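Have a close read of the entry that follows and walk me through the local backbone shapes. See right below:
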Amino acid sequence: MAKQKKPLPAMEWLQPRVRFTRWVSLIGYLALLLLIGVWNGVFADLHGARTWVVLSIVLVPLLILAPSVLLGHARGHAWLCFVVNIYFIQGVLAAFDPARALYGWAEALISLVLFCSALMYTRWKFQLDRKLAGES
């Protein structure tokens, strides 16, 4: 027996959710960039490594996705869900180090919020696009 398609939610229901999760994703994305930049640029003990080298290595995965995230592409947000897991793991590991506990918890919390908002944005954006294309 063939599986029946579920009807798409109404546009009046989808549009505010897409808008809200987009803003939460953007704020979370920029907050994560700022947190990592400030921590590694000012507070981290890099043991003699050059700051710009460490920052470029740590921020490259996020910066690769910057154009699609800033433009609001759903696929970019989907890829962001994969990439942000790296920062969640890094934050949890840093949270167990007493010298970096506050940074670790902040990074884990921001990446968790970013993951959830980007995931919901991706889902609702694709549904909205299908609804705008005439699918019911």
